[in-house]
Amino acid sequence: MTGTELLRPVQELYEAYMAETAQLERDKKLGDGYMGLKPGPKDAPCHGQFAKDLERLLGELLATEPDPAGTRALLEYIYRAPQTLRAPETARWMFQAVHGLTVPLIGRLAPADARALREEYVKRYKRWDRLPAQKKALAALDRACKE
Length: 147
Known about the structure:
It is a single chain. The protein is built from 7 helices and no strands. The two termini are about 20 Å apart. It is about 70% helix and about 0% strand. The chain is mainly α. Helix 1 runs antiparallel to helix 2, helix 1 (about 5-25) runs parallel beside helix 3 (about 70-85) and helix 3 runs antiparallel to helix 4 (about 90-95). The protein has one domain. It is globular, with a radius of gyration of 16 Å.
């Protein structure tokens, strides 16, 4: 599959999730989520559902034997999403948390693409700000650079 064919379903999933989290923020009432007393937007089930849907979608895409260029475009989109997409804070955190789901796709990259993605990733996400899932993705990029 090419870059556009790979990217379109993922973009649609991200856009739907951003719309849902934005609606949660608009519907939030004073005190929702404050000190854990009442559920707030960050407690909504849509966050976990987004991760499950993305994991399923990436698995389906992986089964189609994506080409390296398409895989790179897809990973660039996912890795840039937390910083480039206009989304509520809760969505941006989830965008970072799902980076670990990309590990199986990293093996489909050409070594040069893996190096380029790794360099960009290190610049975007400083060592002290990385979530465990991001560390997992970066370790996979490191391995792919050496292959």
